[in-house]
Amino acid sequence: MSICKRVQQWATFARTWHIYDCTWQNPFDSAKIISKHLMGMNKPIYHPMNDCGDHVVAINTKEMALPGDEWIKRVYFHHTGYPGGASWTLAWELHEKDPTMVMKKAVYNSMKGNLQRRYTMQRLHLYADDKVPEDILANVSHQIKALRPVPQRLDHIDKEIVDNFPKIMDYPEDYIIR
């Protein structure tokens, strides 16, 4: 095998590192995209029995958003293995205890039927905020695009831009809002 072909083969089978920002993202929709990269379904060499997946670093899991009233209605089940060890935890309670756990469970459940799911999850690196260790950030070479755009907060926009924004009407000076 020539040197050029060998390098091409190494690049084909190499595990790349992706970063994904979970700010304002639905964890269940995000989990589908993250699991595709973890299992290697985005590669042309993918096969269900081939372990060719990549690493994914998910940041800002503390800022993710569940649709509707899922925070109060979604329940997560856990069993310790001992008699009477079953417990159900609401999503907001689980998120307060560990901000990465909801995303971890969503990704785990999105890989149903994957025989290597346990080992594939070891390549998922979750962080509650954007403070990622330098040795992990040094490996990241690709960013996964967010599914929905994050709106800019009004208090983060320059006052000059807000004042120059076109107005439909000007309220009189003595106007009182009731």
Automatic annotation (TrEMBL):
Gene3D superfamilies under this entry?
Answer: Ribosomal protein L13
Q: Name one GO biological process term.
A: translation
What keyword terms does UniProt attach to this protein?
Ribonucleoprotein, Ribosomal protein
Name by which UniProt lists this protein: 39S ribosomal protein L13, mitochondrial isoform X2
Taxonomic lineage of the native organism: Eukaryota, Metazoa, Ecdysozoa, Arthropoda, Hexapoda
GO terms assigned for molecular function: mRNA binding; structural constituent of ribosome
The record's comment on protein family reads: Belongs to the universal ribosomal protein uL13 family.
- GO cellular component terms attached to this protein's record: mitochondrial large ribosomal subunit
Q: Which Pfam families match?
A: Ribosomal_L13
UniProt signal peptide: none
InterPro entries membership: Ribosomal_uL13, Ribosomal_uL13_bac-type, Ribosomal_uL13_sf
